[in-house]
């Protein structure tokens, strides 16, 4: 399984992904599920994937090949994020069909980025190739093992949330998932794209023993215990 | 869908259940999923159910009929909680088989209670009639839509947790599920069995606009925002 999360707040778009790949509990491996591409000043993208690893790797290989071959559409020719989502959806459907189709080859993607002259956006691309955009009411999207990490996002994330808050909240959402589900595992990758800058994003990899993640987990556990203690007790009778 | 939660701490056993029943999003209704039975000074039980409503209602009807008819085994004749779990598992399997068997008639149960002369216990009874007991490492069990409400339990609940803390934590786990999933809904039922007392438990029903639940939700949302603010910011570069 996988857990990837995209948060689109006023100032930035943040992507977080785990790196565990499993075909059964005795066949566990580590693969990055985050792929970044950018031309500074012109276009910046980040793509996270969940589902069949052969499908997601083939999709990314095709995107890279189309750039190399000067094909159109490609990452370099699309003029807005909607067009890019449509292109990636088509590539994904074609890759799945080539493998024989069916549920086992399915993959879903989170796509975020910005192209000069058009708005930045965060999309979820379904295995059928269609896609949805994040909304201003719920400015985040998740793929994979999404349920464990959803409540903290529902309680905290708004468009006006600061970058620092959104990063902390996203990492806690990921940590809750790691803690509750064995099929999601480190390293964790984080990418922060500043909205409107068209600059390369800021990237951070958190390994198994990352000090910041360990400290965040401990502080958060203590904060949760303290928060429970601070709630009014229920008077039962 | 359904969400039921049992927490077995040193001082008490706590059960919490929602009341939404749905056969599709346009056929939603409200049924209690919590059933209590006790003979003060001798035995106290609480049973929560998830799955097919016809199955769970038939199981409870059969338990009541067996008591009325003086059958053995029955709620009045079993001598410990293990025997009770076995009996309820058998009744459940028989009820499902009568309806034709198969996934659609499945039901799972949380069973908690105590019988004079034997230890109190918390069990999860699977649709196949087999069952597991809560452990001292993870002193809680969940059935139904369990993922949203799991992280807060994983971070806070231990056997030494106080009754007040466990009630607050359990209600927050339920509220997280209500907030993130439409198929789990109020009223919420709470039952607290004091370990070793063999007294009737303390029961509380929380309706849609319950003041304590509303206040808990608001205070918790604020506590989460404050906790996120209090975490150390990640230094990215």
TrEMBL record, chains A, B:
<dbReference type="InterPro" id="IPR029055">
    <property type="entry name" value="Ntn_hydrolases_N"/>
</dbReference>
<dbReference type="GO" id="GO:0005839">
    <property type="term" value="C:proteasome core complex"/>
</dbReference>
<dbReference type="InterPro" id="IPR001353">
    <property type="entry name" value="Proteasome_sua/b"/>
</dbReference>
<dbReference type="GO" id="GO:0051603">
    <property type="term" value="P:proteolysis involved in protein catabolic process"/>
</dbReference>
<dbReference type="Pfam" id="PF00227">
    <property type="entry name" value="Proteasome"/>
</dbReference>
<keyword id="KW-0647">Proteasome</keyword>
<keyword id="KW-0378">Hydrolase</keyword>
<dbReference type="GO" id="GO:0008233">
    <property type="term" value="F:peptidase activity"/>
</dbReference>
<protein>
    <submittedName>
        <fullName>Putative proteasome-type protease</fullName>
    </submittedName>
</protein>
<dbReference type="InterPro" id="IPR016545">
    <property type="entry name" value="UCP009120_prtse"/>
</dbReference>
<keyword id="KW-0645">Protease</keyword>
């Amino acid at each position: 399984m996988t857990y990837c999360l995209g948060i689109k707040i006023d100032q930035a778009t943040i992507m977080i992904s785990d790196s565990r790949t499993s075909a059964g509990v005795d066949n566990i491996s580590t693969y990055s599920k985050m792929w970044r591409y950018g031309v500074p000043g012109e276009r910046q993208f980040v793509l996270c994937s969940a589902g069949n690893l052969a499908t997601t790797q083939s999709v990314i290989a095709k995107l890279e090949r189309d750039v190399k071959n000067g094909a159109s559409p490609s990452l370099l020719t699309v003029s807005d994020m909607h067009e890019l989502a449509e292109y990636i959806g088509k590539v994904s459907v074609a890759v799945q069909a080539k493998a024989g189709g069916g549920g086992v080859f399915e993959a879903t993607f989170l796509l975020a980025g910005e192209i000069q002259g058009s708005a930045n956006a965060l999309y979820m691309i379904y295995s059928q190739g269609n896609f949805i955009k994040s909304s201003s009411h719920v400015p985040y999207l998740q793929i994979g093992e999404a349920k464990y990490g959803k409540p903290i996002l529902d309680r905290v994330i708004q468009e006006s949330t600061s970058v620092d808050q959104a990063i902390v909240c996203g990492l806690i959402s990921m940590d809750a998932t790691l803690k509750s589900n064995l099929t999601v595992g480190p390293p964790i990758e984080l990418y922060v794209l500043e909205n409107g800058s068209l600059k390369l994003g800021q990237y951070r990899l958190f390994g198994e023993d990352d000090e910041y993640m360990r400290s965040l987990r401990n502080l958060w556990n203590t904060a949760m215990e303290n928060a429970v203690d601070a709630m009014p007790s229920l008077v039962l009778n």
